[in-house]
Amino acid sequence: PMKRLTVPAIRAAKGKTPVVVLTAYTIRMAQILDPHCDMLLVGDSLGQVLYGLPSSVPVSLDMMIAHGAAVVRGSYHSLVVVDMPFGSYEESPEQAFRSAARVLKETGAAAVKLEGGAAMAETIAFLTARGIPVVGHVGLTPQAVNVLGGYGARGRGQEEYARLIDDAKAVAQAGAFSLVVEGVVEPLAIEMTRAIDVPTIGIGGSVECDGQVLVIDDMLGMFDRVPRFVKKYEQLSEKIDAAVATYAADVRERRFPTVDQTYQPRK
Ligand code: KIV
Ligand code: NA
Question: Which residues are the active-site ones (predicted)?
Fold first, then answer.
């Protein structure tokens, strides 16, 4: 059996081998993705993807812990990273530690991810010094949708571009072992990747990032509309639609169940 990848192993991938990451929220999906991935991210995107919430803002720590535990149970190779949800870490390093310690203790995951740049540097250093590895997340940070005003690409203006470079450096300097770079103009993703010594994981970033991540339901084609940065590797919603249409017709035409799916008295 494969040994679970460690935080130092992910960090050491920088400049050597691309880091493969997908989101996972449930045990069966974790089992299927695990052998192919280096990290499984239990993203707070589960708010929209699984629960139909309008953004990730309403997601709770209890929701992240429930799904984090399921993904850990469904994997033994990939490093499992759980998103810290909005409101569980921003107040202080102490609040962040309290929340993140619950995540590690109650899920078995090895690391957490939190959104934000220079403003989160002190918190990232505080967690890392106390045994909690942190993945950073800069650029388009969906928990800040109410400040940003939407999900458009970041770093188009000179001032914002420069500030985001500083954010990436601050997060890496604080001790994050990896950095998700989401929804930024490509030159910015490339410059961030060159500027820091831990792997950048792009999503709407650049092929030059040190790794890539996608939301699993997006890449499998579960949704009609997806952001520009998604490549649909499958059209699962169409396949499910066809399968369910066949089932519905079978029920209505009394073609299901057959003798194969029913219990007969023993002779
Ligand atoms: O919540 C999420 O799925 C994420 C990834 C897309 C990076 O944060
Ligand atoms: Na997230």
Answer: 182
For 44-71, write each residue's pLDDT tens digit. 999 999 999 999 999 999 999 999 999 9
> What is the reported pTM?
0.97
CB 78 within 8 Å of CB 4: yes
What would the two tokens of residue 210 be? 């040190």
The CATH architecture of the domain made up of 7-235 is: Alpha-Beta Barrel (3.20)
Determine if residue 239 is labeled as part of a ligand binding site: no
Q: What ipTM goes with this model?
A: 0.99
d(CA 54, CA 183): 19
Q: Residue 123: CB partners within 8 Å, gap ≥ 6?
A: 89, 92, 93, 96, 114
Provide residues with CB under 6 Å of ligand 1.
Answer: 23, 41, 43-45, 83, 180, 182, 203, 213, 215
Integer Cα distance of 163 and 155 in angstroms = 9
Output the CA 151–ligand 1 centroid distance in Å.
13
182 catalytic residue (yes or no): yes
Amino acid at 69: A
Sole residue written with tokens 């000179």: 158
Question: So where are the chain's domains?
Answer: 7-235
**From the CA of 42, which ligand is nearest?**
1
| Closest-lying ligand 1 atom to the alpha carbon of residue 182 | 7
- On whether 232 is known to bind a ligand per the annotation, the reply is no
Round to whole Å and give the CA distance between 7 and 200: 14
Kindly compute the dihedral angle of the four CA atoms of residues 154, 92, 86, 133, in this order, to the nearest 10 degrees: 80
